[in-house]
Amino acid sequence: MKIKQVFDGIFKTIFWVWNLTFLSIVYLGILPIIGGPLIKATIDGIIPLEFSLTMAATIAVPTVCTVIGARRFGKQPLQLMRWFYGVEAPLFLLCLLRLFLLRELTPASSQIIATIALCIAAFSVEMLYGYLGKRENVQNIFDSQNSHNKQPRFFRLIGEKRSAWLQLGCHSLMVVVGIWAATLLIYYAVPVALYTLYGFFFVVIQFFKFTWVSPFLEMFKYGDWASALIWIPLSFILFGLTCSLFVVMPSLYGFLYIHSGRKIWQSFAAQYGKNKALIGSLGVIAAWLAIFSALQQQPQVAVMKMLATPPANDTVRQTLLAKSDMIRSGLVNAYLSPYRYLSTVGENNHIYEIYKNIWIFPDGAAQTLQNSYNFLMSPFLYQGSSADVEKAEKLYGEFFDTELQKGETEAVKHAVQSTSNREEAKAGLLNVNQEKVWLQSQEVTVKENGDWADVQLYEVYKNQTPNLQEVFYYFSLPESAAVTGVWLGDTGDLNKRFVFTVSPRGAAQQVYNQQVVERVDPALLEQIGPKQYRLRAFPIPAKREFTPTEGPTEMHLWLTYKVMRQPQGWAMPVLAEKRNIFWNQNTRRTIAGKEVKYSGKEARETWLPPFLPAVAQQPLTAQQAILPGGNIISAKPLADANYSLPQGKKFAVILDTSRSMAVASKEVKETFEWLKANAAGKNAVDLYVASAAGMPPKLVEDVRNFDAAKVTFYGTIQLKDMLQQFAQLRGDKSYDTVFLVSDRHSYELSDDRKLKLSISSPLWTVHLGGLPPGYDDATLKAIQDSGGGVATDMKEAMQRVATTAASGESTVSVVDGYAWSYAKTPQSKKIAKSAAVVESKNAGNEGFKPIAARQLITALSKQKSSSQLTQLDAMHAVAKNFKVVTPYSSMIVLVNDAQREQLKAAEAKSDRFDREVESGKEELSKPNNPLNVSGVPEPEEWLLLTVGAIGLLVIFLRQRRAKMVG
Fold first, then answer.
1. At 735, is the secondary structure helix, strand, or coil?
2. How far apart, in whole angstroms, are the C-alpha atoms of residue 818 and residue 639?
């Protein structure tokens, strides 16, 4: 009896001392100080909601378990211990693991965690309600205190028989979980026992050296007696007791679960027979193992083998395309492996290091322990290497023809949100169509000047997140339009807004990116294609619910451009892609002086109308501008009858066979049918079929022999690579014009490689389904320098080619209903004074000069120069003089002298025009590998680390208290 009383006292002491110590520290020391700020920070979005909920669950588990233990098992010490080690401790440990180690769960790890949670729930039900079957037929199974417990309503609803079967299944799994978890915990319990014992003696020795007296007296001196007398001793008690209890946890946890499973099995067998009990238990375990075996197969292993060698024929390509879902799953799993797994199998070495250092195990024995640990932890370990992340990203782009972050945005975001990843300030691929910055208001004003107009777009942005955000637009304008300004402001006051500077494209990009990193206000407007532009503005002030600031709460942006009149009216910017920004029915819109209301889907999807009707409808007239240096730009309106198709020419057509082209297969078929019917008969048309790695490109010498329906669209090919394949395949053949048929190819997959060939013939890119967001500078240079252009269908491209040739050698381009020509010397007085021509000397037509300057730069880009940098500087001088954006000159808004000095230095560099491809790929902060260590600290080092952590916590609490008092 005395021994039983001793153990009862020990059991009660363990339960109440640990729980009361933990609850005292949390509820009296931590929550009063950080509870309020934690809730506010969660509402503000500074702290992820999932983190706060998991932390709340970690605190709630001991709280609820303490209450239940006091009410149900207060007078039953043995049951208190069962409750502590069977329910509270594993639940608390599970919450800690989820809070600090487990990130995004895989199917296999989800099964393990769900099974553990189910077994904990089953164990608690068994403790609270006993066996759920008919108790009158059961003998010597449960203590009398459980026999009268009323069953939960759920079990009463499904009946005793179903409840008994359900309980048998859960407790059968409990045996498996108990054995698995107990074995796993032993790997840590043994070293923890040694460290705890060593630490105890170390503390005793240090105590009697009295080295702690001086720091304690300092705390009393500065009035921090609570930390000295309460929180530090309580923290030491909690830490020491936790370590001690953890040492015996494997044996007790395993024994309790195996014993509980055995009791339920015996109860069920007594009621329904041993055969049914045996069949039920083995059936549940077999089904669980079958599911586990299926979920344990990590898809990337087979996928990496499939894609190791590029397919050499269409049959293999089609086989791989049929397995796209499997390939996608495998590559995404490899890319997100740092978030889904604790470690790779090869990098997990902590068990080896612990036992080699503590027990001085031989290498072979330590490695055997590590291998056995890896086997038990296989659901949480990645079968591959850390290099698979980059490899998977590369293979994904090559197979799916798009950036992985763009193609799998939701999967990547979900994985990233499972950690405390610090998001980049720049708007990347993960921010496409994200609703972080609200477009509060939008105003469009148009000032008509006959055949051309000045358009201003004014927008106000309100951040909806607690972080600084960047607004990002890809948009297009008519090819003849000239962007003339961009401004930023904290308010709508025009006199206080920050003005732009026209700068070389490379220098502007370099300074902008640097300022975003430093989180200082800039804006950048670039032209990245004949029609395509990119606009970025940063930072949109963060939103604060509980921590208001005296700074700005919104950002104002103005964008101006000049555009020629078209039959539909005045062209508005056409959105290609947006990041972070969104609008809805509450956005205030004023367009051309009229308030516009959108609702529903239209309100969420419409940025701007495609055109605004022109008020004046007089016939179009010719325009002319005399620019500095004797350069004359003329614009002649064209009627439908002026357009023609080419005859007697020799053309090359390059077909992009990238995977994304499969979406435009119908348009591809229609394009080649049109070519055969309208161009191939009157012109010589050769077809070059580009190909991704694995198969060579093909030359079809007569496009009429080509069947577009038989093409297999596979992999990815960049425009530069298609041109390279064309140059190698054509030999000494020459062509009047080269047409490259593609789709809205993935700009994000472009790179900064230079073209290794020179294209003498005009290069036209025909993008079926719409224009891409932009081009890398090497491809854009090839288009501009060759005198080519871009179009969205073959008919448009060929008409412009033929009409340009028919308009004379001085014609720069035929675009937007005008033939634009360039001359170096003034024309005759008769022509200059013609009533059909309005010269720029007229004050009313002075505003036409920026549009003309834009065409002058296009003309200059076609001229050959021995010094490319000199030519670029000359074109930039024109852009800077007339304040326009061009493919070579960008507009950047700066707000202080330091930024301007930085820009001045960048403009003086020889690489001032070298612009990098902005892929938008975000560099994700990968979680640390908790299972990889380079060495194990000595026991006294662990203790010092613990003391340091407690000290830091005390300092943190003191600072928080001081701030609150202040």
1. coil
2. 9
Q: How many CA atoms lie within 13 Å of 943's alpha carbon, on the beta-carbon side?
A: 17
* CA 334 vs CA 341, 414, 467, 659: distances in Å: 10, 15, 30, 22
Sign of CA dihedral 154, 157, 160, 166: negative
Which tokens belong to 797? 């491209």
CA 159 remoteness from chain centre = 49
d(CA 401, CA 328): 12
% of the chain beyond a pLDDT of 70: 87
CA pair distance 252, 178, nearest whole angstrom: 10
- How far apart, in whole angstroms, are the C-alpha atoms of residue 939 and residue 958? 29
Which residue in 547, 484, 505 sits closest to 849, CA to CA?
484
Q: Which helix (H) or strand (E) is 563 found in, with range?
A: strand 555-564
* Best CA proximity match to 466, nearest among 584, 555, 545: 545
Residue 538 φ then ψ, to 5°: -150, 150
Which residue intervals of 101-159 are DSSP H helices? 107-129, 144-147, 153-158
Residues 246-288: tens digit of each pLDDT: 888 899 999 999 999 999 999 999 999 999 999 999 999 999 9
Distance CA 215, CA 206 (A): 13
Alpha-helix residue ranges (DSSP H) falling in 477-627: 505-517, 600-605
- The pTM for the full model equals 0.84
For every residue of 345-376, DSSP letters joined together read TTT--HHHHHHHHHS---HHHHHHHHHHHHHH
Query: Can you say whether residue 592 is alpha, beta or left, with left for phi > 0 and alpha for psi between -120 and 50 degrees?
Result: left
Hey, how many other C-beta atoms are within 10 angstroms of the C-beta on 586? Answer: 10
Distance CA 779, CA 801 (A): 19
| H helices present in 740-793, as ranges | 777-786
* Angle between the N-to-C axes of helices 363-376 and 350-358, in degrees from 0 to 180, rounded to the nearest 10: 140
Distance CA 566, CA 830 (A): 28
Find the DSSP H helices in 749-884: 777-786, 794-806, 829-832, 849-861, 868-882
Axis-axis angle for helices 160-209, 363-376 (nearest 10): 140
| Residue 299, C-beta contacts closer than 8 angstroms, at least 6 positions apart | 326, 329, 330, 333
**pLDDT tens column, 61-77:** 999 999 999 999 988 99
Q: Are 247 and 196 a contacting pair, CB within 8 Å? A: yes
Distance CA 762, CA 736 (A): 7
**Spatial contact of 298 and 379, defined as CB atoms under 8 Å apart:** no
Q: Determine the pLDDT at residue 43.
A: 72
Token digits of residue 582: 């969104």
Q: Is 405 left (phi over 0), alpha (psi -120 to 50) or beta?
A: alpha
Count Cβ neighbours within 10 Å for each residue of 61-74 and write b for 16 or more, e otherwise.
bbeebbebbeebbe
Gyration radius from the chain CA atoms: 37
CA distance 711 to 672: 12
- At 420 the three-state DSSP class reads coil
Which amino acid appears at position 476 of this protein?
S
DSSP secondary structure code for residue 152 in this structure: P
**pLDDT-derived band of residue 868, with 50, 70 and 90 as boundaries?**
confident
Could you tell me the CA-to-CA distances from 835 to 831, 832, 847, 876 in Å, in that order? Answer: 9, 9, 19, 33
Q: Which of these, 139, 714, 105, lies nearest to 400 by C-alpha position?
A: 714
